[in-house]
Write a structure and sequence with these properties.
11-stranded mixed β-sheet; Alpha-Beta Plaits; disordered N terminus; 3-stranded antiparallel β-sheet; 444 residues; single chain; 14 helices; 2 domains
């Protein structure tokens, strides 16, 4: 079923009309740094700790002692070129405020709605080809048509949700942030490669199978590429995986040390109107924030290049998001297939976690060990959202619903990155024979 708008209600909050954004002093830029970071994979910690320019004349109301609830739309502004490359000179990106005569520009091919419901943080990517309800245009053109206010209004009409704030991030700033955090670690699976060539823009970007550490410009190309390495859904999945990884980096001592560098160019790199009063309410709850990442379900609209909201699947997705689930998974989750992929670099850690899960009554379909990865540990699925969320709650991990992830339909993948060595340190203290997995556990 394809429908342009869903009737899912928004949160009940007292708000006044959303005013236009204004220029904020540098001290407020400190509060907004994170909003940019989330958009293309540099999000997470700062989004949870910093905000920016004021949107409402009165702040969002929240219960005393609880983290505030609000929604923010993150938009990644694509590169605009004011001169194409030729045999003698490279392509030239447009300067700030410069309008291109040769490139459409100002497309927001990355749109992520982030819903803060106290300490539960849900990130929802919107496909660039999603149709604006009752309009013959795509959602990625909304910003160019009417600026951030039009963009927010159009996304609200697609989701049926109130959006409190926006943050529009320029590509150059994303490059700077990734460089400041030491680059982006990516792994190209065997049998695949990245080929991104655009002669007019002077792009000739290629990656072979294996692990790579990408600096800012190449990392952004990796997060932008659609053709030659998957499609728009694959790109959105890569962006969400990058968010989890860079969240970990931004929480590190290095991330805190480079924050002044990130702020130095902030005002030229991010356009936002977030309410700075949220900061003091959020700080006491930082350790409790957890991410859930998904992609808006859509269906092709016959005879067009547009995508329409898959209302039935979206409604089901919302109904399955049950924040009341706590530490112990429901027994109904135990009948499903679970795979553990250990890229922690810690000998036998994946096996020990699998053993522990079996003690708790879960079936392990397969246990794999890969080369060490700095990607964030998380629970991944395609279509078992409810079960994956229970595992994520049980293990204290982020939850990622992907459409182009190497996970079978009906499967839950528990991915252990390098950070799991500290997270599951207690498992390393258990005796080696604490439980022996049945031989069938190593077979799909």
């Amino acid at each position: 079923m394809v429908q342009s708008k869903t009737a899912i209600p928004s949160k009940s909050k007292k708000r006044k009309k959303r005013p236009h954004s204004h220029t904020a002093p540098l001290w407020r830029a400190l509060q907004v740094a994170s909003l940019m970071v989330v958009t293309l994979g540099v999000s997470g910690y700062t989004l949870l700790t910093q905000q920016g320019k004021q949107l409402h004349s009165s702040p969002i109301l929240s219960v005393l002692g609880q983290a505030p609830s609000f929604g923010v739309l993150l938009a990644g502004l694509d590169v605009s070129y004011c001169a194409w490359a030729d045999s003698h000179t490279p392509a030239r990106r447009c300067a700030k405020g410069e309008k291109s005569k040769i490139d459409a520009g100002e497309r927001t091919d990355t749109l992520i709605f982030i819903d803060f419901s106290t300490t539960r943080v849900e990130l929802l990517s919107l496909p660039r080809d999603t149709q604006v309800p009752n309009q013959r245009r795509k959602i990625n053109a909304s910003y160019k048509l009417g600026g951030p206010e039009q963009m927010v209004s159009d996304v609200e009409s697609v989701l049926g949700k109130r959006i409190d704030y926006y943050a529009v991030v320029h590509t150059e700033y994303v490059e700077q942030v990734i460089d400041a955090l030491g680059g982006l670690d990516v792994t190209i699976p065997p049998g695949q490669k990245v080929d991104f060539t655009d002669k007019a823009a002077g792009i000739n970007f290629h990656l072979e199978p294996g692990s790579h550490l990408l600096r800012g410009p190449d990392a952004v190309l990796y997060l932008r590429v659609r053709k030659g390495f998957g499609d728009d859904y694959g790109r959105m999945d890569r962006q969400k995986v990058a968010i989890a990884q860079l969240l970990s980096k931004l929480r590190s001592s290095r991330g805190l040390q480079v924050l002044p560098t990130l702020l130095s160019n902030f005002e030229s790199g991010v356009e936002t109107n977030a309410d700075p009063s949220l900061l003091s309410e959020m700080v006491p709850h930082l350790s409790a924030y957890r991410l859930k990442m998904a992609t808006l379900p859509t269906l092709e609209i016959p005879g067009t290049s547009y995508l329409g909201l898959d209302t039935q699947t979206f409604t089901q997705m919302q109904n399955e998001a049950d924040p009341s689930q706590n530490a112990v998974p429901n027994p109904t989750a135990r009948a499903g297939v679970v795979r553990v992929l250990d890229a922690s670099g810690v000998p036998d850690l994946g096996n020990r976690l699998a053993q522990y899960l079996q003690i708790r009554g879960f079936k392990i379909s397969k246990l794999e060990t890969r080369e060490v990865s700095t990607e964030q540990s998380q629970v991944i699925t395609r279509n078992r959202t409810k079960d994956a969320e229970r595992f994520a709650n049980f293990l204290g991990l982020s939850h990622f619903d992907g459409l182009r992830v190497p996970v079978a339909s009906g499967e839950v993948l528990i991915y252990l990155g390098q950070d799991s060595a500290k997270r599951f340190a207690a498992l390393q203290q258990l005796p080696a024979n604490f439980l022996t997995l049945p031989s069938s556990a190593n077979n799909p």
